[in-house]
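Morning!

This is the sequence you dropped in the shared folder:
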Amino acid sequence: MTDTGLTPTQQPPLSPAASLEIATEPVSELWNQLFDQQSIRNRFIRAVRRFADGRTVSECYEALEDQQIPYWLRSRILDVARGNRREAWRLAADLVPNLGRGHASLEDLFATAGFFATNVPNEQPPTLAVTIGRAFEDAPRRKHESICRLLDVLATGFDIRVVATGRTQHWLAREHREELPGVSEWRETHHPTGDQVEQALEVLDPDGRKVELLRQLADEPAQTLSRHALRAMHDVDRSRISQLLVSEQNSLTELGLVAEFGPTDDRTVELLEAGRQLLEELDAQIGRQQELTEAVSDTGTSSTQCRVTPRTRGEGDDDSSDDSNPYRTAYLNRPGHVGAVGCGEAGDITLVEAPFDDQTDAPDHTRYVSFDGDREEAVVAVRASGPLQYVVSLATALASPRLLNRVLTDSRLESLEDPPAILRDARCIGGLSDEALEDPEALREAFIEWGTDLEDLTAKLSAGEYEDRNRFRGSIMRSAHGLAGSIVHLFDALGIDIVRELRVPAGLDTNSLNELATTISIATAIQSKYGAFACYRQLFESREEKRQTALSPTVDADDPLGMLIGSVVVRSEDVHRLRPKLEQSLETPAALAEDAPEFAVHVSLSTVDRTAYASAATRLLQSKNLRPTREAVSLLHALTGSPYATAQALQQLAGEDKRRELRPDELRYALGTLESEQLLSNLPPAVGRIVHTLLTAESCLSQRELANRAEISTRTIRNYRDRLEALDLIRVDENGYRLTLSFQTTTERRNSVVPTALEENQTLLDAADALLETLLQPDRYGDPNDPLGSALFWPPDPGRLLDHPMIGSWMRLAAALTATKPTEDSQAIMGPPIEQQALLRTTPTI
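The structure's back. Tokens below.
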């Protein structure tokens, strides 16, 4: 069943009751064209009879007068209602079609149209196809308004399908919101990627190969594929895919729908936000093709996607209750890679309060890997809901061909300097047979086979194919720890930096968190080193035969601290719940071995700070020939929920030919591509909605319009207005509300608009002063003994308010805006007590 109203589409509906084509004709001509169609004349006559049904003559006259039907039509309408067929023909084919001409005014036309729409049977509203061409945009404004008014009136009784290009739909939504209420809801008119989507809709064939490429990217877990993989999916010339992606006119890169990264001989393609919106638009308007192998309009035909069949059984029992999604390995997208590397700090474990994408029906068991050959850094991101899933997923991801074939190249392995004795007996790298050390291909295959065997074992565990479950599970855990530790140590020997991202689902019970913390601590010890020596084997190994075969280090009394190889990032929405147990477990991951050497491993347990946001922004923008300013880093730190959101936003920007600084209006655009939940996530959700709505607005908004777009009440806006104004994040004047960040206009590009809190002379004390003035009554604000107000008096200490239950989240926002340094991280020392400690490193910020 259809509904009344206006619906946008790019495809004419099947079997409409009537059709109209709008170009430059006046509204009276369109009305006449409508009644030229027999189906409309018949429906009008039925509407007249439906109107009169059950009414007396006097009631009919009174109702017609109330509806402002022209007086000279009223008696004829009643004649038709009584069954006068001759009068019915004259009314529907002569009198009504000529309204708006001669002595009949446009108001008569609109009143009669309203009468018609009101009395059309509403059980199944007739469909009216209205095609609007580009010429309509060039017609005088008065024609636009009268035609839009007619459509709005008819939409109360008809299902009107507005057939137009995406660009024209966008134009209608922007220019005629007042004449066509609700038209602005057709699409995300105020979304910053709207113009890109409109342009793409204009030039792309919905059934063409470019859209097919977008769909194939969208079907990937991280919406990322290598060029090699895309070429394998299409039976076309090798160069054709490159043309579609980057080189020909209206390529997917030129349209801003995809981005490429990586070395020239191993380019990776990622779907951007505009590309996702384009597909959503096409799905809504036309409907997605059911098979990608259908014929396309471009040269050649597509082939079935070439992909390794994923395993359908789990990597353990941690998610056994809803383990329906397969385990598989996919390539991590660019924002995910940059976000993880930005959060990671060499030798540290970083706790990041950030959500991650998950399946709606069951947990996402995809293991993500990526490698930046230019920087020689790898990232592995795995789900960690329990010990077995975490360790096995980490090991099998590290051993995946997607990663090893990129990292363990022949040239890198041939440059390996450590002798076999050090690799085997100091670093304790498994799988290093003489053949593997001589043949790079054999080495890669050895690790890949180890990972495959590990998957087979976990499949048997899930199927119950064992005699003693605990013993069998323990052997899997030892094998997984050994594989992960071996590859991490080998990467380190090759000079490859490695970031391990652990995605911990929110809401785990305390026992699960405790078990996970213990396992993370053991993995940390295994993947740590003192010089070239594996720390776990030296400090915690309980198997005597393993200790006997290992080489022993000579400890430098002046430098007795080992370190974690690479970095570990623990990502979760409630990561704070894991911290206490993790701090405890890192001190003693296992019982200290007898006669353990006198060295220990220093591990810093930290949270993300300004440095992580600066790193993510700098790295991602570098490939676009842009560099972040101090103000941009402060705003990204303050507004985005994590460095992952920072990278996701900045990835949507286009590249530049010459290197320059990122402008505030570009930052506005990038931030506007995020969802409101990714903004100011430590504050109430309504605050994120307010800021997101103002980010995506093209001009100042009234309080009512802001409330409508943000889907909150005006009272909610008033509740937070003072605090947002105190930090100068928003400004309110006679023109309405605006975010204190440059609009994308020529004037504000030249004269940047940013919050005053970003100025270098602004301090946390200044921000605290402004906030407390809005939150406290005057007597408390000026009271040196007040629990909050006293922070402003000598000696001022606004930092102590950062964890205050009422104002803490707002103070942390102020700290980010003013580039205030965070509190100290906690330190863990695993191993025997030592007197000498190496100096902790410091990292500069921008």
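Headline: The two ends are 59 Å apart (CA to CA).

More detail when I'm at my desk.
O.
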